[in-house]
Amino acid sequence: xxxxxxxxxxxxxxxxxxxxxxxxxxxxxxxxxxxxxxxxxxxxxxxxxxxxxxxxxxxxxxxxxxxxxxxxxxxxxxxxxxxxxxxxxxxxxxxxxxxxxxxxxxxxxxxxxxxxxxxxxxxxxxxxxxxxxxxxxxxxxxxxxxxxxxxxxxxxxxxxxxxxxxxxxxxx
Length: 172
Hints:
Mean pLDDT: 95
Helix content: over 70%
Number of strands: 0
Order of helices and strands: HHHHHH
Distance between the termini: 9 Å
CATH architecture: Alpha Horseshoe
Strand content: under 5%
Number of helices: 6
């Protein structure tokens, strides 16, 4: 259920960040959801990583969740500090490469329940964080495309899967 909880709010933050990237929400206003989801993800990641030191799957899930929690917290901080986001952009490259490796590893589980969904999510996130790198780290003018893809990921990798898991329609 922690996955459903986290994905629901990841869907929310990505949705609002997509709206923000479209120019329809102010920086400081969207910073709030980034801080809140970053904090929620940080708490979930900490619980997973440190609650049971013998559970390597939970530790791995916690470590990977920290990557995204730090991203949201950093986005929120940048919006309040007025930073240009270049440092965050380079961190997004690190996250993108990490997500690609996890996606490749997930290919081995394609025959398992929701294996295709897992692979799709990791590669979708890898592409999204790579686009964040291009937008922020390289300062390229791709904001409209990134906004649209962020909205796509919000709905199909966060919001819908989160609701389905929380309602027991998907059991992982």
